[in-house]
Amino acid sequence: LIFLLICCALVVSLTALLEVILAGRDCLVAGDSCSSDETCSPRLRTLRQCVAGNGSVKLGPGARSQCANAVSALLSSPLHGCQCKRGMKKEKNCLSIYWRLNLVESYPYETVHKDYDYVRLASITADSDVGMTTVNRCLDAAKACNVDDLCQKLRTEYVSACIKPTAKSGLCNRLKCNKALRRFFDRVPADYTHELLFCPCTDTACAERRRQTIVPSCSYESVEKPNCITQMRICKADYVCRSRLAQFQYDCEPSETSANGCMQGNYGACLLAYTGLLGSTITPNYVDNSTSSVAPWCSCLASGSRREDCDNFLGYFNDNICLRESHSINETPTISKCTVKYSFSSAPRTQTASSDGIDKQIVPLIYYMTVYSDLDLLSH
């Protein structure tokens, strides 16, 4: 008993120490520390001018040398090695500090260890499913979300934001929709969000429910598909989108030599990185009723000399063994509790009738009320 108490005390102490260490690596904390230091502060100001659009004008003819010296000096300051947490308060401010120092593509988010508990989700709706011969994992996931206060609240918020037309144009407000979508996937535990988004389907109705999870008529689709290179350029100009893309490319990097197809060997991290892209310029979604058929709403037509870059970008979604295998972990009907390490690192469609015959371009509100009526999602 004494030994166990000592072990517990040691674990608590190590956890507290880890939190202190991670807090010290927070770029906001490191930035404040640098700003209050008379040696570090002027170098940080120089770096800010370097990354600004007219930085070279302000710094004069020796701009290149000054910028290189500032970066070199800051690499030995508290800013070196700092990171941010996905979904944190002032995330954009934190990431702006990170990217000023890391002028090349890098990994901005801290790594966090959590349990992804499939069994707990199954138990939430087990009582109501007694005697049923069929299993609809997507419906079960929706029910599980609806009985969890946080999941139900934030899901209602983003669905409402995404289906509400603006008075001026009659279309949805995509900015508000995407903001609410990011809030849902950043704040609701992966136990719920992963089951909603990656639930396996064996019929068209189930697959369509899954495809509609992110309300794609507002958050995903537009009248025409823009070029993927253009979308990437817009994404990389935004600190949050750039960071989420960097996290996705790191955690979902494919590998033909890895046993599970992922360079990092972590399905949970890949799925979380994928959800981090939702609500961004390069939001991905299911393009049909296949579990592994996903892509952003963009095309590589007219990519010119950058066609290969464009194809490589799309290939991360539609030809990625790591992402494909990560999706497939939810296909197994009975999965015991497994621990995964994941990382916190960043308009109307064309006329297409759904499986139930409803044209979602013409009557999106009626469609979504029908989809969610069994959950009483819009009645709260």
From TrEMBL:
Key word Nucleotide-binding present: no
GO molecular function: signaling receptor activity
SUPFAM superfamilies reported for this sequence: GDNF receptor-like (SSF110035)
Coiled coil: none
Domain named GDNF/GAS1: residues: 27-107, 138-218, 228-322
Topology versus the membrane: Lipid-anchor; GPI-anchor
GO cellular component: external side of plasma membrane; receptor complex
GO BP field: cell surface receptor protein tyrosine kinase signaling pathway; nervous system development
UniProt xrefs under InterPro entries: GDNF/GAS1, GDNF_alpha, GDNF_rcpt
UniProt subcellular location: Cell membrane
Keywords: Cell membrane, Glycoprotein, GPI-anchor, Lipoprotein, Membrane, Receptor, Signal
Protein origin, superkingdom: Eukaryota
Record has Ribosomal protein as a keyword: no
Signal peptide (UniProt feature, chain positions): 1-23
Family the entry assigns: Belongs to the GDNFR family.
Protein name, entry field: GDNF family receptor alpha 4b
Naturally occurring in which organism (per UniProt): Cyclopterus lumpus
